[in-house]
């Protein structure tokens, strides 16, 4: 009863924040703010009320740690596949990749392929073993036969680094997007996102987060498809007609359909591809979703559904970008002067919104704006849950309490951690308002590919892995990835103001990921301790568990 009452109070507070937001004052900083878009506000309020209702329903069903972290393992493969796709299809997919296709042409499609190719690897190499070996977090897998305290601490630290950088990028994106499209202050947008995130995760846990992702993914697929269909109807649904007209008006001409700019620097291109591909397999909020299904078969099915949905949506985005070249490029003043204006058309992230207004008017613009905000909100919720689980399950329950913590105390820590992460995300979002956040996303993928993925894949497939090797590789991958990004142009020049970068490339994975693998192999090979021999011997039991879901060490490991 107390929890329900407290939840109702927070829900009322969130709705109150939304009501006050409609009366927002002047924008923060130099970004021009659009007049209040009541269509977008109204649609977003409907989405918030719906998801708050789901959270209330989920709160009454979240009684245990298994319910909070993994929805009790009761999510079907199809549902989880849609939720995973929702986790992956962020606002950057709709806005950023559409804008990249608009400005760079086929180079953007190569970029999308780099984002996508990690899915088959997860399907064939990882999905079944993730479900059979893990319980709540991917640290359950990496520490399965190793030293629980040391490995979990390392995994939790790298997870939190990834989560924090992703959170900051999403929060800054939310603030700027809403400032432009909804006519709300940047700070108010951050508070709304942070408050709703805390409500969803604190009370509803994985059940609420999953259904928020499913609803948001459905809205994103419907909205993107609708804009694409309306836009393609202007070309008689002919791809040849679309590309011919796009080539005729775009400044790149025939080069619009030729690869070029992205591959101008092969080292950066390869490093980017490695980071995006293997980073996907190391993102904690994606890996966490494999523990929400009932068995390994449903886990594989989840990846299959997610892969199909993501592939479909990437193609929708590609068509949106090409359609925008003709429809938006020749009509740069769809928005009133002094609001968003033509200069955004020159390659900014609002091209998809311009296209929506051009083919569907204010109503479709309002709907797509609400979808973009809902997308950020859903991704932030998934990230917060992954960060909270690293703190409560890995650090508090398994490291500090060494497995003796009660479920009640662990849930309490999870909820406090969620609130703390929400506050940190809002504060960092305010601090980094003026910063280009592209390097944060690159850092998140780079850290995931360099710190999480090597330890995870080696723990599942290499008998020779030892605790010392995992620790050496994990920390070396983490610190080398962070250091290289700080020394690159993205931070050293653009943020810190130095004239020349120390590290000449913008992507770290090509260098930091091999360092992590090398450290894992060398240190493990050189480790002749008794503990190391026991860890190698325990691989047989882990292998059985990974293949069948049944193993003698299960109780001890978890």
Describe the structure.
The protein is mainly alpha-helical and 558 residues long. It has one domain: Sodium/glucose cotransporter, CATH 1.20.1730. The protein has helices at 2-21, 38-59, 65-70, 77-88, 91-104, 106-116, 118-133, 139-142, 148-181, 186-232, 239-249, 266-280, 284-287, 296-327, 342-345, 351-400, 407-431, 438-461, 467-487, 489-493, 509-526, 530-537, 539-548, 554-557. Helix 6 packs parallel to helix 12 (266-280) and helix 6 runs antiparallel to helix 14. Residues 1-31, 334-347 and 551-558 have low confidence and may be disordered.
Number of domains: 1
Query: What's the CATH superfamily, by name?
Result: Sodium/glucose cotransporter
What's the rounded overall pLDDT mean? 79
User: Helicity level, as a percent range?
Assistant: over 70%
User: What integer value in Å does the Rg equal?
Assistant: 23 Å
Strand portion, in percent? Answer: under 5%
Counting DSSP E segments of at least 2 residues, the number of strands comes to 0
Q: CATH topology, which one?
A: Sodium/glucose cotransporter
Low-confidence stretches: 1-31, 334-347, 551-558
CATH architectural designation: Up-down Bundle
List keywords for this structure.
558 residues, mainly alpha, Sodium/glucose cotransporter, globular, disordered C terminus
How is this structure best summarized?
By secondary structure, the chain is an all-alpha fold.
Set out the fold topology.
Blueprint: H1 2-21, H2 38-59, H3 65-70, H4 77-88, H5 91-104, H6 106-116, H7 118-133, H8 139-142, H9 148-181, H10 186-232, H11 239-249, H12 266-280, H13 284-287, H14 296-327, H15 342-345, H16 351-400, H17 407-431, H18 438-461, H19 467-487, H20 489-493, H21 509-526, H22 530-537, H23 539-548, H24 554-557
